[in-house]
Write a structure and sequence with these properties.
- It comes from Vibrio quintilis.
- By secondary structure, the protein is α/β, with parallel strands linked by helices.
- The protein has two domains: 83 residues, no CATH class; 159 residues, Metalloproteases ("zincins"), catalytic domain (Zincin-like).
- The chain is 37% helix and 26% strand.
- It has six helices and twelve strands.
- The strands form three sheets. The protein has a five-stranded mixed β-sheet, covered by helices on one side. The chain has a four-stranded mixed β-sheet with strand order 6-7-9-8, with helices on one face. It has a three-stranded mixed β-sheet with strand order 10-12-11, covered by helices on one side.
- α4 packs across α5 and α4 packs across α6.
- The longest helix is centred in the middle third of the chain and has 28 residues.
- The protein starts with a strand and ends with a helix.
């Protein structure tokens, strides 16, 4: 195993060779809180990004040694995520495809009924889409109907969960505004004014995962960063957030595929 580097501008990116593969990773440097143990943390994300969090004054050699010690683990984690991604394909919106809602799987069924109004409903383990006419736009119409159904459900479920969680978020005054907005890489965000944006695809996940994202964004109203204080605040309202986040991350590619 060897290591090569490429540091352009502020992006600190390196790679190492494991077997016959070059593995690239990004180093994110953070201030080191006084009195806390110095550590270098390595995270492999489901999208196959490898991020190394290190103290801002950490030596390059120390970072390299930490990565090399976990090179096999990094390689194995990447292989597992890549194997999983092989089964994630873009949806074609045809009968038989798998859809998700609140953590449960549903089989998509598309039927034609010329006397009916186009609609979507859940029925005995199926997501039933009714079109009043099959034509060359069948898949596009199905996709539009399914997307609209998810957005409508998301609006309702997110309102319910936000109302249920607000009593725990004692630092929030009033009811924050939120909107449902499709995003490709984020489950949610919080503006500097305290308004939330939530991804409609999140409604495909279990309620615990929805609660995690909402609480995460509510914590940003008090701490608009990912400081130690932020994580302590989140842990106070959801002690098992790491487990829930891991569950959501593990299904992200399936939930976000369209």
């Amino acid at each position: 195993m060897t290591s090569v580097s490429s540091n352009e501008g502020k992006l600190e990116e390196y790679s190492f060779i494991y077997g016959d593969e070059a593995v690239t990773y990004e180093v994110v440097r953070k201030p080191h809180p006084e009195g806390k143990k110095r550590k270098i943390a390595i995270k492999v994300h489901p999208n196959c990004e490898v991020i190394v969090n290190a103290p801002e004054d950490a030596e390059r050699g120390d970072i390299h040694d930490a990565v090399m010690k976990r090179a096999r683990w990094i390689y194995d984690a990447l292989k597992e995520f890549r194997d999983r991604l092989q089964y994630v394909q873009s949806k074609e919106y045809v009968s038989g495809e798998m859809q998700f809602y609140l953590g449960r799987r549903y089989v998509l069924k598309v039927v034609e009924d010329r006397d009916a109004i186009a609609n979507v409903k859940m029925e005995r383990g199926k997501l039933l889409v009714t079109l009043n006419r099959f034509n060359e736009d069948k898949q596009a119409l199905t996709k539009a109907l399914v997307s609209g159904w998810y957005s409508m459900r998301a609006e309702r479920i997110f309102h319910e969960r936000l109302a249920a969680l607000l009593p725990q978020a004692t630092w929030v005054t009033g009811i924050p505004g939120f909107r449902v907005l499709p995003m490709t890489k984020q489950w949610g965000s919080c503006s500097t004014k305290g308004n939330l944006m939530l991804n409609p695809h999140l409604v495909k996940a279990p309620k615990a995962c929805i609660d995690y994202v909402i609480l995460h964004e509510l914590c940003h109203i008090a701490e608009y960063n990912h400081s130690d204080k932020f994580w302590r605040l989140l842990t106070g309202v959801m002690p098992n957030w790491k487990e829930v986040k891991s569950r959501l991350d593990g299904m992200a590619e399936l939930y976000l595929s369209e």
